[in-house]
């Protein structure tokens, strides 16, 4: 089992359980949060810059992009201050707008 699979499998299971419940919930889906002690992803930023202008890669680059800790916290605060009615999923592009 790859490290990413070990991360994704339980996340998918939890999201499915939440979605099938009658709960109101906001699910945030950051790919990776840049913060103190986690600087290695800066090494792959050039790959995102290269993929961005390529039409066939643009959506993937946006969906899998990196978010800063500051933007992640802002997205979490927004989710708490504005509770969802039903299920709300916030992906990387929306997290980056905070």
Molecular structure report:
- The protein is α/β, with parallel strands linked by helices and 98 residues long.
- The longest helix is centred in the first third of the chain and has 18 residues.
- The mean pLDDT is 86.
- Strands 1-4 form a two-stranded parallel sheet. A two-stranded parallel sheet has the order 2-3.
- It is 53% helix and 16% strand.
- The chain is built from five helices and four strands.
Mean pLDDT: 86
What is the domain total for the residues?
Answer: 1
Helix segment tally? 5
Strand order of the largest sheet: 1-4
Distance between the termini: 34 Å
Structural class assignment: alpha/beta
Total beta-strand segments: 4
Task: Give a quick set of tags describing it.
4 strands; two-stranded parallel sheet; globular; two-stranded parallel ribbon; single chain; alpha/beta; about 100 residues
Brief digest:
With 98 residues, the chain is of the alpha/beta class. The protein has helices spanning 3-20, 45-51, 55-63, 69-81, 92-96; strands at 25-29, 32-34, 66-68, 87-91.
What's the helix and strand layout?
Elements: H1 3-20, E1 25-29, E2 32-34, H2 45-51, H3 55-63, E3 66-68, H4 69-81, E4 87-91, H5 92-96
Parallel strand pairs: 1-4, 2-3
């Amino acid at each position: 089992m790859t490290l990413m699979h070990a991360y994704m499998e339980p996340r998918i299971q939890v999201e499915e359980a939440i979605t099938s419940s009658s709960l109101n919930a906001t699910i945030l889906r950051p790919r990776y949060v840049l913060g103190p002690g986690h600087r290695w992803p800066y090494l792959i930023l050039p790959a995102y810059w290269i993929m961005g202008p390529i039409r066939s890669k643009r959506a993937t680059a946006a969906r899998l992009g990196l978010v800063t800790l500051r933007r992640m916290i802002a997205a979490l605060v927004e989710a708490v201050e504005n509770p969802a009615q039903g299920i709300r999923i916030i992906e990387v592009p929306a997290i980056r707008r905070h």
